Amino acid sequence: GTFHLRIDLEGHEIAITVDGETLDAVPVETGSTTEQLAARIAVRLEDLGVDAGALLAQAATSRPLQYDQSASLAFWEIVETVLAVFDMRRAEMTGDVGPVHVWPHGFDLAFEWYADHVIRYEEEGETKEGRPQLNVGFFPTAPAYFYSNPFPFDRAALLDAPLPHGAVWHVSGWEGSLLPYGRLVGDPDAATKLIDYLAAVATASVPTLAAMT
User: Fold this and answer.
1) Which string of b and e fits 49-70 if b means at least 16 CB within 10 Å?
2) What is the spatial distance between Cα 114 and Cα 96, in angstroms, rounded to a whole number?
3) What is the pTM of this model?
4) CA–CA separation, 154 vs 1, rounded Å?
5) What is the pLDDT of residues 19-75, one digit of tens each?
6) Residue 139: which of 90, 103, 88 has the closest Cα?
7) What gap in Å lies between CA 73 and CA 209, rounded to an integer?
8) In Å, how far are 146, 152, 163, 164 from 121, measured between CA atoms?
9) Rounded distance, CA 5 to CA 78, Å?
10) How far are the Cα atoms of 38, 43, 46, 63 from residue 55, in angstroms, in the given order?
């Protein structure tokens, strides 16, 4: 069978689902370590017939957790709002648009649009094959920002293309564009401005991706 662990930011616990049925939960508490949390989850899973102790231990550390319930609830409200806007933007896009997912290393919400052809490109000295793509995401760690990054990134075609509402092209460390989250906080037109920004990046970059061979 299969098991899933779901972080419940409203109930402040990690829900354990086995074969599609939620069977147990482990509370997340300040002061416990990820080693202790992983061990508690492993024991619950073992009771349900799943041996995952070694897998869970791989990411465990002895550093105490700092868990703020009010911050957790605030983050969940932001996630729900951003997800709603991303779904609006996905509905506007044509072609191969992926689902919204979460990158676990930074908890960013993101989705991707893919061109309909495969290209060869160089990355870290290796020749690889893949489809040109445009990703869209929200990075929540301070200073939080929205991003939209075409890959491969055509500097000559994109860096002079205008972006609205304080968004900028970004080429230091990674290539793409960003719109600071602080530009939209408290703005009644935040959703419209976010979609304007994402649409502007797509207008500038999708033709460059489609033309790549």
Assistant:
1) ebebeeebeeebeeeeeeeeee
2) 5
3) 0.85
4) 45
5) 888 888 889 888 888 888 888 888 888 888 888 888 888 878 888 888 899 999 999
6) 103
7) 39
8) 26, 8, 27, 30
9) 21
10) 9, 13, 13, 18
d(CA 139, CA 180): 10
The secondary structure element, H or E, covering residue 102 is strand 101-103
The pair of structure tokens assigned to 104 is 């676990």
Alpha-carbon span 60 to 38, nearest angstrom: 7
Q: H helices of the chain, where?
A: 34-47, 53-57, 69-92, 155-158, 190-211
**Using CA atoms, how far apart are residues 155 and 186, in angstroms rounded to an integer?**
33
Is residue 89 exposed (0-12), middle (13-18) or buried (19+ Cβ within 10 Å)? buried
User: Residue 64 carries which DSSP code?
Assistant: B
